[in-house]
Amino acid sequence: MGEEEEVKLLGTWYSPVVLRAKIALRLKSVDYDYVEEDLFGSKSELLLKSNPVYKKVPVLIHNSKPVCESLNIVEYIDETWNSSGPAILPSHPHDRALARFWSAFVDDKWFPALMAAVVTKSEDAKAKGMEEVEEGLLQLEDAFNALSKGKSFFGGETIGLMDICLGSFLVFLKAREKLKKEKILTELKTPTLYRWANRFLSDEMVKIVVPEIDKVAKFIGEFEDSAQSVASKS
Amino acid sequence: MGEEEEVKLLGTWYSPVVLRAKIALRLKSVDYDYVEEDLFGSKSELLLKSNPVYKKVPVLIHNSKPVCESLNIVEYIDETWNSSGPAILPSHPHDRALARFWSAFVDDKWFPALMAAVVTKSEDAKAKGMEEVEEGLLQLEDAFNALSKGKSFFGGETIGLMDICLGSFLVFLKAREKLKKEKILTELKTPTLYRWANRFLSDEMVKIVVPEIDKVAKFIGEFEDSAQSVASKS
């Protein structure tokens, strides 16, 4: 990376999708300025200008040019600093297509199902939602076997796109386990994925940037309390 | 492409997202077998086996390996037949990130807004929805100016990812114009995008694979009639 490079990341400390950008930057040993956004207060002018369509974090700003959407940012980082650190996308087009397919599955199907099951007040809807989440985990366990080819990560020997994508949500799962004593990812049902999760969270590159589980659990707890208090007043 | 290559596309003739795969294969001069699926009847064993997660078209099967999801397929085609025809993704990482960002915008935000506005029975919801669709078109007009850099297509001199992504929906827009006499993309509001649309649909590579507007209009009309008749019976 040349002297003149300017890299800035707009994020919030607790966001799983911001964590994706942080992990990718760490894997590629990219130095950057981090700007914490206050999404509950007022968003910065820089954020509004850099991501006028969604006004969301993360935004990566590289030499004044913004890149939005977390998986898009991870691919951008991989392509831009392609000679530094391990490749985040596999080299073969079919493996790349699989990594992109399963990452989209996590973002478009599995995590939305989890969020819907978590927030619903109906016990029936929650039970049905959690069934879908569990079915998704079984599909992801199969995907792990197909992508990892017997190695440690979805990306093979090293952390790849799909590890970053699914791995970024592990903090949320662990925080909910602490808070609600409900286990979502279990050794019994998806043993391979369970072991992968521990391996991912113990990785040196990940440990450096992952927020503390206790702090995230406290944050989620307070957020849910305030949401409930708003709901009961309305 | 070697003699031993086997390329198969599972699709339906009227599907805009299947059209994406067809355009990409044409741009790269790839010979393939096309299999028409009957989504209203029973899906083929091959489709269910190749796309067990979504059971949807398009699916590209290359040497027995399936690739699912239309934009994923287009990227796969670009990467696999990278020395044949024009590059579908731009070469610079930032331009690639922009093409991916706006393609995701079309699929996740703009087209769903259009579909919601089209199917709703409430006049209020329709008016509000069409406002969102028009605002999206203004954003896409800006995106065209940023991506095309004064050239003919989002992809510059040649058709790229974003041309294929948004262009695939033009048949649907034209068919609705015929059917309902409502214009969605107009010269008055988004002149640059309007001219791009005509240029895209007149392109030789596109014309070869695009379904007939009249046939699509008839299909949509019949589909809506049968949906209404089902709704009135229930």
Automatic annotation (TrEMBL), chains A, B:
Molecular function terms from GO: glutathione transferase activity
GO CC annotation, single: cytosol
Tagged with keyword Transferase: yes
Chemical reaction(s) catalysed: RX + glutathione = an S-substituted glutathione + a halide anion + H(+)
PROSITE patterns tied to this protein: GST_CTER (PS50405), GST_NTER (PS50404)
InterPro entries reported in the protein's UniProt record: Glutathione-S-Trfase_C-like, Glutathione_S-Trfase, Glutathione_S-Trfase_N, GST_C, GST_C_Tau, Omega/Tau-like
Top EC class, one word: transferase
Compartmental location: Cytoplasm, Cytosol
Signal peptide extent: none
Protein EC: 2.5.1.18
Main location: cytoplasm
All residue ranges annotated as the GST N-terminal domain in the record: 5-85
Stretches assigned to the GST C-terminal domain: 92-219
GO BP annotation list: glutathione metabolic process; toxin catabolic process
Keywords assigned by UniProt, alphabetized: Cytoplasm, Detoxification, Transferase
Similarity comment: Belongs to the GST superfamily. Tau family.
Protein name: glutathione transferase
Organism: Arabidopsis thaliana x Arabidopsis arenosa
